[in-house]
Design goal:
By secondary structure, this protein is α/β, with parallel strands linked by helices. It is 41% helix and 16% strand.
């Protein structure tokens, strides 16, 4: 029986919670035992409720006491947990690892956040003269996560472009990488292409979490593009996973768009989320950096037209047929929207090509984390 300590203290909301849920589904009802250390946030708590009845899963839930306390717990308390529970492997779910001189067992670290490993994002912060924000939100954390990631020999990534980004900041020669899919690509996971008739109302869908004001989300490009689109005398609506208060308090939103917008807030119910992917829906992404962009993946699987920024992750994950635009250029985004509305290209054929590309690329990856755990432990023997 293998005993694994799971460090998920960095998981709080949005895509991280989705991937965390997928991970727990993979390891439930297994002969191995898992000690899972996580935060007490409501989104993580909702996931724990689904899995706390499984005998092989034991949860240690901590109140969020800030980043410094997390560092202390991940190293000094983890050392005791490893010893007391006879742990054989530590799986770091959030890009951070432990000091090797404290944890004398193999560590596998999953990197699903590239905010601290993007030269392109650095350039955006600097172009906006947001030097203090960059120093606080990116540079200082980069120093820590880079140092801690170097403690881990084994690294899990969701796509090759993540490894490419990491290679700009750490020496990858002595690392062993595992490319693992966090996406269900069985045929049942894909919906047929939705119907499109742009003589009827167009539905723009923007899926984002509570950090939408962060520079890397690039939300202002979406707002600027739709503000211009609003004057084109075309029937449309905006569905956004934020509240009216969140947007009005942000300083980014255009109040003139209120009458066209359905303010949905955070949606945790998968059925309600699925209902958003309906006929005449165009999903728009503006993120400057992602490991996968799960909201775009969900759009592709659900059979709707998707638009993404022309960034390395979009080209690597979604393929050549994705409709792309210049990331920080709202006019380029507007042109991409108008191309969809006026193009003679078959929308169904476009969607099916993206679905086929996604199936092929994800099928080639590891699909169960237990297989990676086994390989890591075998390498150590």
């Amino acid at each position: 029986m293998v005993k694994v300590l799971i460090n998920s203290l960095g998981i709080q909301d949005s895509g991280g919670v989705v991937v965390f849920n997928h991970f727990l589904y993979e390891i439930k009802n297994n002969s191995s035992e898992f000690l899972i250390v996580c935060n007490s946030g409501k989104f993580v708590g909702a996931v724990i409720e689904q899995y706390k009845g499984y005998r092989n899963l034991r949860f240690v839930v901590l109140k969020n006491r800030g980043f410094v306390y997390r560092l202390y717990y991940e190293n000094f308390i983890f050392k005791r947990l490893v010893k007391d529970n006879e742990i054989q492997l530590v799986y770091n779910f959030s890009g951070s690892a432990q000091l090797n001189f404290l944890i004398h067992i193999p560590q596998l670290t999953k990197v699903h956040n590239l905010l601290f490993y993007s030269r392109n994002l650095d350039a955006v912060y600097h172009s906006k003269k947001a030097y203090f924000e960059w120093f606080k939100q990116v540079f200082l954390k980069r120093l820590y996560f880079k140092f801690m990631l170097n403690q881990s020999k084994y690294i899990e990534v969701q796509s090759n472009h993540v490894q490419d980004c990491l290679s700009n900041f750490i020496d990858t020669k002595n690392k062993i990488f595992y490319e693992k899919s966090d996406i269900d690509v069985c045929n049942d996971a894909f919906s047929p292409p939705k119907g499109y008739d742009f003589s009827k109302k167009i539905k723009f869908l923007y899926i984002v979490g509570p950090h939408f004001e962060s520079i890397h989300k690039n939300f202002f490009t979406f707002v600027d593009a739709l503000s211009v689109f609003d004057g084109l005398n075309i029937d449309y609506e905006i569905n956004v996973t934020l509240t009216k208060d969140q947007l009005h308090n942000s300083g980014i939103w255009d109040y003139a768009l209120d009458s066209k917008t359905n303010f949905l807030g955070y949606i945790s119910d998968q059925e309600k989320m699925t209902e958003l992917f309906s006929d005449n829906t165009i999903l728009i992404s503006t993120s400057i950096i992602e490991t996968l962009g799960l909201h775009v993946i969900e759009g592709i699987r659900s059979g709707v037209i998707t638009i993404a920024p022309n960034e390395s992750y979009a080209r690597a994950v979604y393929g050549d047929n994705m409709i792309l635009y210049d990331t920080l250029d709202s006019n380029s985004l507007l042109n991409a929207i108008q191309f969809i509305l006026k193009s003679d290209v078959s929308h169904s054929a476009l969607i099916l090509s993206l679905q086929d590309r996604l199936k092929k690329s994800e099928t080639a990856k590891y699909h169960n984390i237990l297989d990676i755990f086994e390989e890591v432990l075998n390498v150590q023997k």
